[in-house]
Structure formats: structure tokens, C-alpha cells
Write a structure and sequence with these properties.
Helix 3 (55-61) runs antiparallel to helix 4, helix 6 (114-133) runs parallel beside helix 13 (327-354) and helix 7 (142-169) packs antiparallel against helix 8. Helices cover 66% and strands 0% of the residues. It contains 19 helices and no strands. The radius of gyration is 28 Å and the shape is globular. The protein has helices spanning 2-31, 36-45, 55-61, 70-96, 101-104, 114-133, 142-169, 177-202, 206-209, 212-231, 267-294, 300-321, 327-354, 375-382, 400-424, 427-430, 436-454, 460-463, 476-479. The protein is mostly helical.
Length: 480
């Protein structure tokens, strides 16, 4: 038994030495512009500011230990072999770019510029939005809350996706079609859940508004995305411009003679992008109607809060329409995302405040049964109650199958139209990096149209030339 313990501790020490070599080599290569061999030697010392000889020196010194016990020689050989192996390993890792500090800090492959700062800065506001949206007295449809939360899966997926496209292909994420389309599909999944949640609540269908099957499909969707990204390069041998889903549905031969840039979005990728936009616009309209259904006009503020986010989507589409050649469009997208998450947080706070949220809600004792209200009353308020909603008449809601058919039809028309239309008409404009004015117009007019259709045409205050206040507390329908 003592021999077993001694052997176990020796293995622990050896493993610790190898781990120290590995971590030290990686950190030294990140922090100092020294050679990999020096970095490995630095790590082998185990102390900052004190270097051991390089691995080749250790090999030379090994002859001095020949007269010592076998365990000492074995330990020295292990350290030397480990150092040499880690040198090769570090060369491979660093050569791939995976330890580049710009990659480790990347956010949607936009690190080191204002875009990355804005994208990262928008995340805290979005978390605040989720907190206030989920306030127990809001009666937020559970699938809506889950859908907005699931958006974080898309946000997080852009980080490894951006790292993959940059390290494997030296491209931004938007230029690698199969990686881009795979990650973007999570946004489509998110918007579908938000639409279904609002529709279920407005129809008085609690099973749809809180559907566990839809949530399980979303988790399966996420697992498929992770698997696809994981095996795309090592197992499926995808190249930089491999088309998403093999470009299924594309017209062959192309009806347009104009050659397409190599970084053009595939047809399935365009379908993902356009469906995402249409689903989000439907969700904006449903949020406005939900305000009337619950008797709380502050829910209309959520539609206002979603407007900059829709502008962000328009910027993303425009960036791809011009074949990812006009950098300022990405900055505009990042800025709209930052503003949009902020306005979402403000809108959700106003909804929660109208339903009785106070600073006392932040008291951590409430989570453990403290506070003024009883746990029974709080537990009752936490559940989603269809009885607190005035359902819309069936004739005021488009039947689900018909709505799905409309979205599919619009998506296909716009996807095919964009894919081949910009090759047939004005290709010199779309493929030019100097078409900033045209890009600005492509962004401006859709955003104005969205504002007019979803907000101006429904707001009597704006039509009278007044700013909407969305004041007041929840009505008795909501408070019931």
C-alpha cells in the first residue's frame, strides 16, 4: 500500500509539472513576444522571473544524472519530453491562431474596433430587459420570455463561430457561408417562439403560449447547430465558402450571366435571414396588440423598443446585399443593436413598474421567503394566467397555417429575388465597395416603412402630432 501511494503521488507531481509547462507556455506566448522555445523554458521553471535552461540544455545536462537513481532520471526525461512535446503543441496551436488575443476577446469576430465594443456593451442592457420582462406580475407569455432568453444562445454562438471563421479561414463570419448560416438559424428559432408565444396569449390558448414541445424543439435545434459547427471542418471538411445546407434550392444553371462574388450568401442563408426579419416584424405587431389585450398601454412601448433592433436587422441584410464590402454598415448594425437593447430594457422596466415593481424586489431575502408579501400570494402571481387577458376574436387573428404560408411565401420571394435580382439589375452597384449612398438608402426606406406600418398607422397620438406617453397603470383586466 505505501508503494502504491508513493507511485500515485509521483504521477501527481509529474502531471502537475506537465500542466505547469502547458499553461505557462500558453500564457507566456500570449503575454510576451518571445519565441515558443523560450516560452516553454519559462513555463518549465515554475516561477515568474526565473528561467531554467531550454529543453536542449536539459537534454545535455541529462548525462550528469546517469549515476543517480532511476526515478530521478525518469523524472528528468519526462520533463524534457514534456517540454519538447509542448513546444510542438504550442507551435501547432499558435500557428492556427487560436491563441491570438484578438480571438480570445472577440465578439462576433469584431474585436479591436468600435463594432465589438458596441456589441459587447449591448449585452448588459439585454440582461436587464430579460429581468424586467420576466417580472411575475407582467403576465408575460412564457414562450415569449423563453424566446427572448433563447436569443442569448445565438449571441453566444457568434463567438465560437467568429473564432472558427477567422482562425480556420482568415475570414469574417459573414464571409463563411456555412458557419454564418448555421449560427444565424438560431435567430430564426428565437423569433418563431416569440411569435407563437404572443399568438397563443392573444388567442387565449395557454398550451400554445407555454408550449414545452416548442421549447424542446429549440433545444434540439441548438444541439444540431453545435454539432454541425463542431464537425464541419474536421469531419465534413467544409471549405471557407462551402454553401450552407449545400445551397439547396439554388437555380442551376443560374438564370443570370453575371458572375457572383465568392462570398455571396447561399439561397438557404438568404432564406434564414429573410424569415428572421419577417418573424420579428410580426412579433412587433403582436406586442402592440397584446397591450390592448391586457389593458396596459405600456406594452406598446415594447414595439417601440423593438424598432432599433429591426433597424439592426435591416443593416445586416444590407451588408450582405452589398457582399459584405461596406464596413460602416456593420458599425450601424452594432449601434442599432446597442440602442435597441437599451430601449428594450427601458420598455420592459416601464411595463414592470406599471405592474407594481419596486426596488424592494431586489431584496435578496425575498428569494428565501422574506419580504412583506406571503409566498402563497407570490406563487400565485408567478404563473401565467390566460384569465388576465382579453382574447382577440378569432376573425382578428390570421389562422396559424395561413400566417405560416404567408411567411414562407414572402421569405422565398425575397430570398430568390435578392439572390438573383441583384445580379440581374445593377450588379455594378451592389458589387462596388463605393456604393455607400445606395446602401444608406437601402437601409433608410425599409426602416421608415416599418415605422409607418407598425407604429405610426396605429398610434393616434403620433397622428395628432403628439409623442405617445404610454402612461397609466395596468387596468383591472391585467391586475385581476
Amino acid at each position: 500500500l505505501p508503494r502504491v501511494n508513493m507511485a500515485f503521488h509521483r504521477k501527481q507531481r509529474r502531471a502537475g509539472g506537465l500542466l505547469r509547462v502547458c499553461c505557462g507556455a500558453a500564457l507566456a506566448r500570449l503575454l510576451w513576444p518571445a519565441s515558443l522555445q523560450q516560452a516553454t523554458s519559462f513555463a518549465a521553471s515554475g516561477r515568474i522571473g526565473r528561467l531554467r535552461p531550454r529543453p536542449d540544455a536539459l537534454l545535455a545536462d541529462g548525462a550528469r544524472y546517469t549515476g543517480q537513481r532511476r526515478c530521478g532520471v525518469s523524472r528528468l526525461a519526462l520533463e524534457v519530453a514534456g517540454a519538447e512535446g509542448l513546444t510542438s503543441c504550442a507551435h501547432a496551436i499558435y500557428g492556427s491562431g487560436m491563441l491570438d488575443t484578438s480571438l480570445l476577446t472577440s465578439f462576433a469576430d469584431q474585436a479591436g474596433n468600435i463594432n465589438g465594443v458596441l456589441f459587447q456593451g449591448s449585452l448588459p442592457a439585454y440582461l436587464v430587459f430579460l429581468y424586467f420582462l420576466g417580472y411575475r406580475k407582467n403576465n408575460t407569455p412564457p414562450l415569449v420570455q423563453f424566446g427572448f432568453t433563447f436569443l442569448l444562445a445565438f449571441v453566444i454562438s457568434t463567438i465560437p463561430s467568429g473564432i472558427m471563421s477567422k482562425s480556420a479561414y482568415s475570414l469574417i463570419l459573414a464571409d463563411s457561408d456555412w458557419i454564418h448560416g448555421t449560427a444565424e438559424s438560431l435567430l430564426t428559432c428565437t423569433n418563431i417562439m416569440i411569435v407563437l408565444g404572443f399568438r397563443g396569449a392573444l388567442a387565449g390558448d395557454k398550451d400554445l403560449a407555454d408550449n414545452s414541445t416548442v421549447k424542446n424543439v429549440a433545444f434540439g435545434w441548438l444541439a444540431a447547430v453545435i454539432l454541425f459547427l463542431a464537425i464541419g471542418i474536421p469531419a465534413l471538411h467544409f471549405e471557407a465558402h462551402t454553401q450552407f445546407l449545400a445551397g439547396v434550392g439554388a437555380l442551376s444553371p443560374s438564370p443570370v450571366a453575371t458572375p457572383e462574388p465568392v462570398n455571396a450568401l447561399s439561397l438557404p442563408n438568404w432564406i434564414v435571414h429573410w424569415s428572421t426579419v419577417f418573424e420579428f416584424l410580426i412579433a412587433m405587431g403582436l406586442a402592440w396588440r397584446y397591450a390592448d389585450a391586457v389593458g396596459n398601454p405600456r406594452w406598446k412601448g415594447l414595439t417601440w423598443g423593438m424598432l432599433p433592433s429591426s433597424a439592426s436587422s435591416v443593416c445586416a441584410l444590407t451588408f450582405h446585399i452589398f457582399y459584405n464590402q461596406i464596413p460602416w454598415i456593420l458599425t450601424g448594425q452594432a449601434l442599432c443593436t446597442f440602442i435597441g437593447n437599451t430601449t428594450l430594457a427601458i420598455a420592459a422596466y416601464r411595463i414592470a413598474e406599471s405592474n407594481g415593481w419596486t426596488l424592494a424586489e431586489l431584496d435578496p431575502r425575498r428569494a428565501f421567503g422574506g419580504g412583506e408579501q406571503s409566498r402563497d400570494a407570490e406563487g400565485e402571481a408567478e404563473s401565467f394566467a390566460v384569465s388576465r387577458i382579453t382574447p382577440l376574436p378569432s376573425e382578428e387573428l390570421i389562422p396559424g397555417p395561413l400566417l405560416a404560408a404567408e411567411v414562407v411565401l414572402l421569405t422565398l420571394v425575397f430570398a430568390y429575388g435578392t439572390k438573383y435580382g441583384e445580379l440581374a439589375v445593377g450588379s455594378s452597384i451592389w458589387q462596388s465597395p463605393d456604393s455607400s449612398l445606395a446602401a444608406a438608402l437601402v437601409i433608410f426606406f425599409p426602416v421608415v416603412l416599418i415605422f409607418y406600418v407598425l407604429i405610426y398607422s396605429r398610434s393616434e397620438d403620433i397622428q395628432r402630432g403628439q409623442l405617445p406617453l404610454f402612461g397609466g397603470k395596468a387596468s383591472s383586466t391585467q391586475a385581476r
